[in-house]
Amino acid sequence: MDFAQARRNMVESQLRTNKITDEALLDAMRTLPRETFLPKSKQHLAYVDEDVPVLDGRHLTEPMILARMIQALDLQPSDSVLVIGGGVGYTPALLGKLAGSVIAIDSSADVVAHSGRAMSGLSCDNVVVLEAPMENGWPKEGPFDAILINGAVAQIPESLFDQLADGGRLATVERPDGSVGAIVVITRRDGYNARAVICDAATPYLTGFEPKPAFAF
Question: Is the pTM of this model over 0.90?
Fold first, then answer.
């Protein structure tokens, strides 16, 4: 399979045609080898326009949805970024091409180890992936200019808003009731959160962020 051609096709047919206009982001997605982050048995799925299941319930997010979330963060080269759910490492590595520093956390030791192996040799010196409870964020290194939750959530943990710098942005897919959700971006300003909805998305839940079971007598 010609992965380089598949990357070019992804950019031209999945991204440019779906309102992705950030040239730095398009260039990063054109050059970062998405297949490297997948197990060999699934590398042929690296550029399909759907979510690809990987390890421990994690998914490699559909390219267009991931790009819409990242574009909504409006990243600057000096920004510090926190990724909740490092996944197989592709999202942190991609953000590392656009921001100054990236910390990604994931609660799965296997996922963190896989990320480290996948990123080796890819010049990801400004990216670190750590094993930690995802719902807590990483307050010791905050506040962050941007936070990306790498998967859908039923509800955004309130503690993450406190880890945003003034003017900081948080992007994720909200699916409060299990139906099709939407990409949202929250901007923190003077202690208040301004919310914008970008587009619909049926992204799978990030493990641990699913809707809580309703109590029944």
Answer: yes
